[in-house]
Protein: Condensin subunit ScpB
Organism: Novosphingobium panipatense
Amino acid sequence: MTEIENGVPDDIIRAVEATLFAAEEPLTVDQVATHLGLAGKAADVAPAFTRLQRHYEGRGIQLVRRGERWHFETAPDLAHLLRREKEELRRLSRAATEVLAIVAYHEPVSRAEIEAIRGVQTAKGTLDVLMEAGWVRVAGRREVPGRPVIYATTPAFLEHFGLGSLRELPGLEELRAAGLLDPVDEDMIGAALDLENARSPQTVGNGDD
C-alpha cells in the first residue's frame, strides 16, 4: 500500500472517495467503513475524510460534514450553475418517458392500466420520478374493487411542454409525420389509444382536479 502524509493508505483514501461519490445520501464514517469491509475500524478510516476534505478545498465540489454524515456537494459559489444545468438538461429514462406519455394521453390512469399498455411492470420509482419533477400527480382513486390510485398530469407538465391543454397533445399521425416515433413508441401509443376507445367515455383531460 502507498502511504500518504497522515498515515492513511492511498487505497483507503480512494475507496472512501469512490464510496462517497456514488452514495445517494450522506454517510457516516461507520457506514463507509462497513461498506469497505472494515466494520468496527472506523478510527482507521476517519483520517481519510479529513484528507479528502483538504484535497477538495477550493475546487468545484467539496466534501462537507453535516452532523455525523459526509457527502460531496457543489461549491457554494457555483451552486447556481448546477441548478441551471438541472433545469436545462433534465432527461427522463425510457421507462419514465413511456409512463409520462401514457398518463398524458390516457389520464386519469392507474398503475395497472399503465402496465397493461406498456406490457411490463412499472417500478414505483418511475412514477416517483415524474411526481418529483412536478409533471404527474395523484388524482384520487378509481371507484372499483381495490380502489387503485390513479394518476394525472399537472399544470407544470403543460407549461414545460408549451401546451395550452391536453387537447393540444399531438396525435399518432402527427407524431409519425414528424418522425418522432420508432416502432415501439408507435405500438405503445397505439395501445394507449385503443384502450382509451374501449373504456367508458372518459376522455383525455377528465382527471379529478
